[in-house]
């Protein structure tokens, strides 16, 4: 998860009963496997003393910053969103390195064409 991020900032009041998502996400960030995936990712924890709601801010390697309301967003959902965006970033990088335009635009008429690269299996083959 951290391999797609350059910075993680987790803000919460330790006395706030809504901090569960922040603590779970912090534990995920501190896991050995996560740290090994990107040792240069900065993980910052800001302990607050006011009524500011728990919040998680992530900065992707391309500089895009995203904030999550940790009172209503489970840590696993935040992790899933990061992984999805990370896969998008990897795909974008792969196309750019190959000299292709990004994003890839597929004309509508091509979307409606049948794909001839796969031949349909016969009923007997499906049952085996």
Brief sketch in words of this structure:
With 128 residues, this protein is an alpha+beta fold. The chain has helices at residues 20-30, 32-37, 75-97, 108-111, 123-127, and strands at 5-13, 42-48, 55-60, 65-69.
What characteristics describe this protein?
128 residues, alpha+beta, four-stranded mixed β-sheet, 5 helices, 38% helix
Described by strand count, sense and barrel closure, the largest sheet is: 4 strands, mixed
In total, the number of strands is: 4
Q: Provide the gyration radius in Å.
A: 21 Å
Instruction: Using the alpha-carbon principal axes, give the shape.
Output: elongated
Question: What is the share of helical residues?
Answer: 25-40%
User: What is the H/E order?
Assistant: EHHEEEHHH
How are the strands of the largest sheet arranged?
2-1-3-4
Low-confidence stretches: none
Number of helical stretches of at least 4 residues: 5
Which structural class do the helices and strands define? alpha+beta
Mean pLDDT, all residues: 88
N- to C-terminal separation?
A: 39 Å
Q: Report the β-strand fraction as a percent range.
A: 15-25%
Family: Belongs to the mitochondrion-specific ribosomal protein mL53 family.
Protein name: Large ribosomal subunit protein mL53
Subcellular location: Mitochondrion
Organism: Rehmannia glutinosa
């Amino acid at each position: 998860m951290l391999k797609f991020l350059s910075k993680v900032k987790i803000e919460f009041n330790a006395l706030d009963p809504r901090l569960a998502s922040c603590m779970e996400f912090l534990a995920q960030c501190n896991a050995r496997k996560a740290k090994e995936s990107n040792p240069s990712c900065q993980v910052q924890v800001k302990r607050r003393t006011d009524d500011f709601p728990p919040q998680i801010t992530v900065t992707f390697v391309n500089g895009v910053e995203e904030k999550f309301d940790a009172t209503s967003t489970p840590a696993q959902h935040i992790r899933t969103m990061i992984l999805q965006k990370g896969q998008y970033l990897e795909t974008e990088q792969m196309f750019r390195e190959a000299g292709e335009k990004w994003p890839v635009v597929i004309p509508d008429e091509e979307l409606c064409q049948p794909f001839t690269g796969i031949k349909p299996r016969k009923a007997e083959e499906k049952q085996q």
